[in-house]
Amino acid sequence: MRFLWPEMLWMLLAIPLLAGAYIYALRRKKKAAIRYASLILVRDALGKRPGWRRHLPPALFLLSMAAALLALARPATTIILPSETMTLILAMDVSRSMLAGDVAPTRISAAQAAVKTFISQMPRNIRTGIVSFAGSANVVQTPTDSREDLIAAVDRFDLQRGTATGAGLLVALSQLLPEAGIDVESQVFDSAFSFRSSESKSLDAKRKTKQAEKAFVPVPPGSYQGGAIVLLSDGRRTTGPDPLDIAKIAADRGVRVYTVGFGTLNGGEIPGFEGFSFFARLDEETLKGVASITGAEYFHAGTAADLQKVYEKLNSKFALEKRDTEISALLSGVAALFLVLAAMLSMLWFYRGAQK
Q: What global pTM score does this model have?
């Protein structure tokens, strides 16, 4: 728990002072009773002593004061709540290594089936976009809440040579934060990643990017609550920027990148491709690094069933999210409850007795 106004906590010193004043008042009352000539008269006048009951209303009053003073300090804590509307970008590896058969029937077929199930079970408050990457990165589907469009986009995956993991992550980040002015072209150094064709538009984009970079202030990793990226890859980067460098850009903007390593750790053989075979080996170290840098998690899926379980876990994460929430109202309610209870017990136990 943390406090937005911690300086108000000094007021809690009033609680022991009030407790001391109450004890002092009780002792003065006992001294005043000794002045009577006969203690029997005092006992008869007081009737049956209330015992512990006389201390309960003051104790509840002190608890009410403590809760109210804590509420003034504006406490906040991290609690799990249903997620609000957010955007999720799926960055999918569609390199030739996805033809490997170590995951039946092939990696790409198993991945497509798992992703489509993931999309169909996703909460309706989440908009989803899809980016595919091989030797280059492409936006297959801009963020939408149409499950039909997303599933159709998954079916359109086209396998290509190369694995530009960093480029895929960067394009996904630009889709998640379109107003951030992320310069994809200069990071990738490849015209295939340029979103502007004319020279005037390119200059305009560079000007806006410089303005955005000048105004940008890094935030803590994982602090962005408007969305996240899920990156699935089965191999090592062969071209494009280093995904760890792109992960730092995402981390500076608070974006979490959950990574999924797909395929057996020993690699999968791809036979009959242009007359020769090769092995596609998983780069777990890089995927773990991307997740760690951005404050997210890494998952390994060695089979189609494993991949399905991974996406089920991810679905639960996006359905419920941890959020920093101020709980001043809750403590104020507790303070009011204690105060009302103290007043009711005082009226019930002592006021009626005085009337008699």
A: 0.64
Helix (H), strand (E), coil (C) string for 305-337: HHHHHHHHHHHHHHHEEEEEEECHHHHHHHHHH
The CATH 3.40.50.410 domain(s) of the chain lie at 83-179+218-302
Task: Report d(CA 346, CA 69) in Å as an integer.
Answer: 23
d(CA 311, CA 202): 38
Architecture of domain 83-179+218-302: 3-Layer(aba) Sandwich (3.40)
pLDDT tens, 181-199? 787 877 665 444 444 444 4
Candidates 258, 193, 260; CA nearest to 227 is 258
Contact 110, 234 (CB under 8 A): no
* 66 Cβ contact partners less than 8 Å away, ≥ 6 residues apart: 12, 15, 335
What tokens were used for 249?
A: 């850009």
Neighbours of 336 (CB within 10 A): 13
d(CA 320, CA 82): 5
Task: Provide the total of helices (H) and of strands (E) in the chain, helices listed first.
Answer: 13, 11
